[in-house]
Amino acid sequence: MAPDILCIQETKVQDKDFPVSAFTDAGYHVTFRGQKSYNGVAIASRSPQAPLTPGLGSENNDEARVITSRIDGIPVINVYVPQGFEVGSDKFEYKLRWLKDLLNFIKARYRATDPLLVAGDFNVALTPQDVHDPDGLAGSVGFHPDEQALFQEFLDWGLVDIFRRHVKEGGQYTFWDYRVPNGFKRNRGWRIDYILASAPLAEKSTNAWIDTRPRALPKPSDHTFLIAEFEI
Fold first, then answer.
1. Which of 80, 110, 173, 194 is catalytic?
2. Tell me: the pLDDT tens digits for 2-40?
């Protein structure tokens, strides 16, 4: 598969070391923002890009967790939301602030009535359908009501969860924790990666699915690909 737009998170590479030629040789334009050893986001596209901003423009701007570019007239925001570590910790509170800053960033720059795409690793599972053990995981990091309430604000503002627009049943995930024995084989997963679109763009979506095959490869990422198709 050769997607028109590819949003990548956790690249873990400084900008000077980013493998630009690997993308250009494959026919892609690429915009990126990285840090050594952790974080990092990139957007690759078949069409040329107009980079808009490398961060949130707030106190949470130091980490390479968000990048925005305009592609074929559509703003595309790629995010890597902090994991949160432990409920009640400073890192958890930072995650909540970061999500709120992201929401304010979007509200200040865009209208829900215009085409907009927001994609990435949100590190939040919204509903019981999105985790393998909703009772056992309730209240834990990634499945906590404070995180879910903030994520719901993105949808209330006007963004649409494209995967859930097309797939109603649960049991389909984008992340399987390495620490869970045979977690992928047992499908002990979480759906914490999203493609969100404003209503005008969501209406043009024709399909969405999760490709689990890369997760079964040798030395895979703990996440796999979430894919959406649009007729534009």
1. 80
2. 899 999 999 999 999 999 999 999 999 999 999 888 899
Mean pLDDT of the chain: 95
Concerning whether 80 is annotated as a catalytic residue, the answer is yes
- CA–CA dist 10, 24 (Å, integer): 20
Rounded to 10°, the helix 90-109/145-157 angle is 0
- Catalytic, 28? Answer no
pLDDT at 47: 98
Amino acid identity of 201? L
157-174 exposure pattern, b = at least 16 Cβ within 10 A, e = fewer? ebbbbbbbbebeeeebbb
Distance spanning both ends of the chain, measured CA to CA: 19
Catalytic pick among 28, 101, 110, 121: 121
